[in-house]
Amino acid sequence: MVRLITHNLLACHAKGCTTNNFPLQLKDVTIELREAEFNPDFVSGFLSRLEWTALVNAAKELGDTSLPPELPDMVDDDLLKNLHHVLLEIHIDEGSMICPNCGHSYPISNGIPNMLLAEHEIG
């Protein structure tokens, strides 16, 4: 399933698309909320790997405004719970991810992103 934890790591890899290819823009998505067990150690351990602005903007696109615009210096339990929800409980079931640079569309079907490229698109 595509979750924002996955989306935050994906960039366009089409031939010649090497700049402004992250984050992929979400389009026509349907989401489902699925409860997941809260693991504060996992969430806090993942913080350094996140592109914060991209995550906040993607969450807003999906209707969640619980994250602050900038990552605070002090991370408290409330922030970790909000982050857990955004990263692990919002599932994108259908839609697409669009490269802001080349416009390539990566479809999402039944929660699975298709990141495969046609032979002529491989760089």
What this model shows, in words?
There is one protein chain. This protein has helices spanning 4-7, 40-46, 52-61, 77-89; strands spanning 2-3, 25-33, 90-98, 105-109, 112-113. By secondary structure, the chain is an alpha+beta fold. The protein has a single domain (2-105), classed as N-terminal domain of TfIIb (Single Sheet), CATH 2.20.25. Strands 1, 2, 3, 4 and 5 form a 5-stranded antiparallel beta sheet that branches. A hairpin with a 2-residue loop joins strand 4 (105-109) and strand 5. The longest helix has 13 residues, at 77-89.
Distance between the termini: 26 Å
Major β-sheet annotation = 5 strands, antiparallel
- The chain-level mean pLDDT equals 94
CATH architecture: Single Sheet
CATH class: Mainly Beta
Protein name: Multifunctional methyltransferase subunit TRM112-like protein
GO molecular function, one term: protein heterodimerization activity
Subunit structure: Interacts with TRM9.
Organism: Hermanssonia centrifuga
Topology readout:
Elements: E1 2-3, H1 4-7, E2 25-33, H2 40-46, H3 52-61, H4 77-89, E3 90-98, E4 105-109, E5 112-113
Antiparallel strand pairs: 1-3, 2-3, 3-4, 4-5
Supply database-style keywords.
N-terminal domain of TfIIb, 28% helix, alpha+beta
What is shown here, in short?
The chain is of the alpha+beta class and 123 residues long. The chain has helices spanning 4-7, 40-46, 52-61, 77-89; strands at 2-3, 25-33, 90-98, 105-109, 112-113.
